[in-house]
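Now for our target.
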Amino acid sequence: MRKGIKRRKKSINTVVIIFGFFLFGTIVQGQKKLNLPQAIDIALQNNLQVQASNINVDIQNQLKGTRFDLPKTDIGSTIGQFNSKNIDQYYSISQSFNPFLFGPKKKLLNENAKSAELKRNFAKQEVIMNVRQTWNNIMYYQKLNEILIEQDSLLTMQVKAVALKYKTGESSQLEQIMSITRKEEFQQMIRQNQTAMDMETKKLAMVLQLKEDIIFDLVEYGVLDLFDVSNAASLTQNTAVSIALQDVKLADMQVNLEKAQMKPEFSVGYFIQSLTGNQEVNSQIISYNGVPRFQGATIGMSIPILSLGSNKAKISALKNNVLLQQKMLT
């Protein structure tokens, strides 16, 4: 529910705060007005952290396509006297792969993308909260300024009345001094309040990273409900907790991925070669030239033997990282 500011009959219809030309006391016609939703949109577009988060989300989503990232295909050939004195040819192609990696890697990439999305939401929520809080502060100082000016007008009339009474002998000099002092105190409060409002306005312009002179149209929305501001802060805090939980999950998945690295790696291949010379086929002697015609398939398996200690050390380090993320969460 929007809470507006009640307007008095003699008050200005539209109250605006000027950034840029308000420093010089002039307003240029045709300047762009911004309300709160527009200010939030501009802040989200111009914020460097949000921009970086958007890029990171794109990167992590693109990396999902690497879940079936295979090693390079091995292509080889041998030409020479490896069968007999005759020159023979041998050609082969093989591909190695670890089927145990696909599942853990896919899960890790998906969770990395989820983590990037959470961090982007956190960055956006921080920007929105900063804009709303600053906007609310400006509205508070503006309303306070109206109250102070109204009180100052009453004090001005009081000072004049006391001065008139003093001339007619109906009041003492002390009463006149006290009324003047009180008016000066109110004027000082007005100046301090205006300074605070100007500082918040500059802060809002910095949050929006404005490169042009803008009029902030503050009247339309009035002072924001304190629940809205506190709710935004609570939402940001909840997102931060979600990011911390996600970091723990990612650390645990890194352990699973490293464990998968220790499992056997398989390879399959195909070869074709020549066998120049006489060969016995079905009890007959056949003479073959050097054209490759004899073919077959290969299959192999590799296991981590020499790298076993290194892999175990990595797993231990990654497990400690899981504990670290859990401690940071608590």
